[in-house]
Amino acid sequence: MDKERIWNDIQKVLIRCSVAPTMHNQEDAEVVEVSNEYIHLKLKEKTRTKNRDLILTKVDFIKTLTKLEEKREGLRRKDLNGRKARYLLGILNLLPEFQVVDREVFEKGQSRNKKFLVYI
Length: 120
Prior knowledge:
This protein is of the alpha+beta class. The protein is 29% helix and 35% strand. The strands form 2 sheets. A 4-stranded antiparallel sheet has the order 1-2-3-4.
C-alpha cells in the first residue's frame, strides 16, 4: 500500500468535492480547504460540539492506513479514536481501492451487521 500516493489521491478527489462523506455515506461535512499537509472540514450545525471545525492531517491518514494494513479484516469506526474516525474512513472510501463491506459481528451476546472499510 503506497500511503503517499493514497494521500495525493485523496487530495485530488476532495479538491473536486464540496462535501466529505462518512462511511455510511452521510454528507455532513463541508470541505473548506485542502492543502499538502491537512484537510479542513466544517461540520454541519446538527453536531453537538461547539467547535465545528475539523482538521484531518496527513499523519492522521497515514496512521489509519497503517492500522488498516495490520487489521486484514478491515477497520470499523470504533477501531479509531476521536471524532475524526468517521471522516477518515468515509474519505478513504471515495478511492477505488477501498470498499465498505458488511460483516456479521458478535457483541454483547448479539449478532449484528457492521460496516468495515477494507483495502482491495
